[in-house]
Design a protein that fits this description.
CATH topology of the largest domain: Tachylectin-2, Chain A
CATH architecture of the largest domain: 5 Propeller
CATH superfamily of the largest domain: Glycosyl hydrolase domain, family 43
Largest sheet: 6 strands, antiparallel
Number of helices: 4
Radius of gyration: 24 Å
Number of strands: 39
Number of domains: 3
Strand content: over 45%
């Protein structure tokens, strides 16, 4: 979950305010509407300025689902939807502290309201994943199972703001990490609270007793009343179609031991040399490492300070040499360290560094809460990050950045983690044009003929000493680097431009720069600045096909 690691207590106060507001909603007088569920969805009107209200779905006098929503009291700004398949044929009562005329605007259908324009909205990213409706943040539990990639994330499907107490695990699948199909949430609230961030693994030896090759999800449960954060298990024995909570949850409660309620975001994997399960967990001021043989009983082994939230931990060859591997430990931001690992203790061999940079409109790091795929068939380490991006006027917000492949390289004798877009991006290329050995002035003239839109750009270039490499798109600056920060001879660029984002990879990922693009009526497209002293050896521009066309 997102917070400010340098200032935990103000966040806690904010959570307290959320709780108090929620309590005020819960104690308000409710209005009931009885209906028989006959369709797949309930479509619910939302007003951006409306007061947040708690809607409960009651069956036989028992509350089986509850969620907060800004139920429209007048003008409807957008619609959200709730999948109610599980209640089909049943008489349910919708209970909400609202006027009956507003509740009656909720209606059933087998289509979500706005399905005719879904994925075609003006600011909908076209080759980055975004949710159909609502808010999304931390990437969770990326895993490959039987030819299918599974992606989970922190989802608040009921509005456009982060809500700590009512987060779900969103779920989507893909065959190529490009084209995703969004499914019903994998996890919703239970008696222990809201399912926060975590990871997933395949239990090939049935160590946990859930079944051989069971998909096991580790997540943090957040209690809205006590603020406690404890680690829990859910599992699937049908390849991620249905999920069951482990009856012995929580499997780890370290709040008392570390004297903090900030204990969250378990990253779990199997460490083959010692045949032990490893959990990396954010606790208070850093990342702790735990071991387990049965996936349920965990023992703390060590702690690394200085990295915060949403950990990832993996081994990679150095410069492609499989005989020389190092471990990468990173937190929720782009901060990471490289070192060695013996199954219990991570020993850093580098200082804390960053592999990505760039801001969103609000000033936050655009890239946050990454997660890498477990169980990939080809040995690659591919990650997806939460992109903290705004999409003006849309019924959804935030995005997933484009999948990138990690590798470790040696730069001036120093180890460095680099990220590059997955090779699958080429499947989306269309109408590719290539120019060789042209000046920046000529390049700008060529680029002026290319319509603004979804673009994949590659370039090999050289920039003279004392100059700057400057690139703009529709009048907005994307890149501004002095020659001193580039190679003296050859440099490479790879640029991905979508509706609301740009991602730039400099010198094969040694710099990864992400930006949230603002809406613009300027359609001048790409152009170079500081043209003197810039020699472009190769420039390739491709249009990018939408992943939603199919």
């Amino acid at each position: 979950m997102k917070c400010n690691p340098n200032n935990i207590w103000p966040v806690t106060k904010k959570l307290l305010l959320v709780v108090l507001l929620s309590i005020s909603v819960l104690t308000a007088s409710a209005t009931d509407l009885k209906i028989i569920i006959q369709k797949q969805y309930l479509n619910i009107p939302v007003g951006r300025q409306a007061r947040m209200k708690l809607i409960k779905i009651n069956v036989g006098g028992k509350s089986l689902r509850e969620f907060p929503v800004q139920l429209a009291e007048g003008t409807t700004d957008y619609w959200i939807y709730i999948d109610v398949t599980e209640f089909k044929g049943k008489a349910v009562t919708l209970s909400c502290p609202a006027k009956i005329k507003d509740i009656k605007r909720i209606y059933q259908d087998d289509k979500i309201n706005g399905s005719d324009s879904l994925y075609k909205e003006s600011y909908r990213p076209q080759f980055h994943f975004t949710v159909k409706r609502g808010w999304s943040n931390d990437i969770n539990g990326l895993i490959y199972i039987n030819g299918t990639y599974h992606m989970y994330w922190q989802a608040f499907p009921f509005g456009l703001s982060w809500n700590t107490g009512y987060m779900y695990w969103g779920h989507a699948t893909s065959k190529d990490m490009l084209h995703w199909t969004e499914h019903a949430p994998a996890l919703m609230l239970d008696s222990l609270g809201s399912p926060w961030s975590g990871s997933s693994v395949i239990d090939k030896n049935n160590d946990g007793g859930f079944g051989k090759n069971a998909l096991v999800i580790y997540y943090t449960a957040y209690d809205l009343t006590s603020f406690k954060q404890v680690q829990c298990i859910a599992y699937s024995i049908d390849g991620g179609k249905t999920y069951h909570r482990y009856k012995g949850n929580p499997v780890l409660d370290s709040n008392w031991d570390v004297d903090s309620k900030d204990t969250r975001d378990p990253k779990v994997f199997y460490y083959e040399p010692t045949q032990t399960w490893v959990m990396v967990l954010f606790e208070r001021d850093g990342l702790s490492i735990y071991n387990s043989k049965d996936m349920k009983s965990w023992k703390k082994q060590s702690h690394v300070q200085g990295l915060y939230e949403c950990p990832d931990f993996f081994e990679l060859p150095v410069d492609g040499n499989i005989s020389n591997k190092k471990w990468v430990l990173h937190g929720g931001s782009a901060d990471y360290m490289i070192g060695t690992f013996d199954g219990k203790t991570f020993t850093p061999e580098t200082p804390k560094m960053r592999y990505a940079e760039g801001r969103s409109w609000g000033g936050d790091d655009m890239l946050y809460a990454t997660n890498s795929f477990s169980n990939m068939p080809d040995g690659r380490r591919v990650q997806i990050a939460w992109g903290r991006a705004q999409h003006q006027g849309m019924p959804f917000t935030q995005m997933m950045l484009f999948p990138t492949e990690f590798s470790i390289t040696t730069d001036d004798g120093k180890l460095k983690l680099v990220a590059n877009p997955i090779k699958e991006i080429e499947k989306l290329d269309a109408n590719t044009i290539t120019w060789k050995n042209i000046s920046a002035e000529t390049a700008d003239k060529k680029l002026a003929d290319i319509k603004s839109g979804l673009l994949h750009v590659k370039a090999d270039l050289k920039i003279e000493k004392g100059r700057r490499l400057m690139i703009s798109y529709n009048g907005e600056e994307l890149l501004n680097l002095p020659a001193a920060e580039l190679n003296p001879n050859d440099n490479t660029l790879e640029i991905l431009i979508d509706k609301t984002s740009s991602e730039i990879f400099v010198n094969h990922g040694r710099r990864y720069i992400v930006k949230n693009l603002k809406p613009s009526t300027n359609n001048t497209g790409l152009s170079f600045g500081d043209k003197d002293g810039l020699n472009i050896k190769l420039l390739t521009v491709s249009e990018v096909r939408s992943v939603w066309n199919n």
